[in-house]
Amino acid sequence: MIRSAVGSLVVAIVAMNQPAHAQVTLDVAKVTCDQWAGYKITNPQNIALWISGYFNGARGNTVLDTQRLTADTRKVRDFCITNPQVPIMQAVEKVIASAK
Predict the structure, then answer these.
(1) Using H for helix, E for strand and C for coil, what is the string for the chain?
(2) Which of 18, 65, 73, 87 has its CA 20 to 30 A from that of 81?
(3) Structural domain for 79, as ranges
(4) pTM of the predicted protein model
(5) Would you say residue 7 lies in a domain?
């Protein structure tokens, strides 16, 4: 009986020492320019890559122009600095669509 109690205690201690892994998801439609440009969620480049894939996928474009991605990201960042409350998806649509 003492062995099973000690065994249970050891299992409980080991289980408590394991780091908790939370699943983190992000609704990009709710991210504001302030959150994006201010590194408040993650590195803005991570979200910029996802947004690029989202819009290019919607157009059926499978070509990645890395220089254009970098330039577009800078344009969106500049827009976001002066428009912090605009959702990032709207900012991208406005900045990139106006550039075409």
Answers:
(1) CHHHHHHHHHHHHHHHHCCCCCCCCCCHHHCEHHHHHCCCCCCHHHHHHHHHHHHHHHHCCCCCCHHHHHHHHHHHHHHHHHCCCCEHHHHHHHHHHHHC
(2) 65
(3) 23-99
(4) 0.72
(5) no
Q: Evaluate whether residue 72 is within a structural domain.
A: yes
Q: What are φ and ψ of residue 87, in 5° steps?
A: -60, 140
Amino acid at 98: S
Residue 62: the pLDDT is 94
- pLDDT tens per residue, range 30-74: 999 999 999 999 999 999 999 999 999 999 999 999 999 999 999
Q: How many domains does the chain have?
A: 1
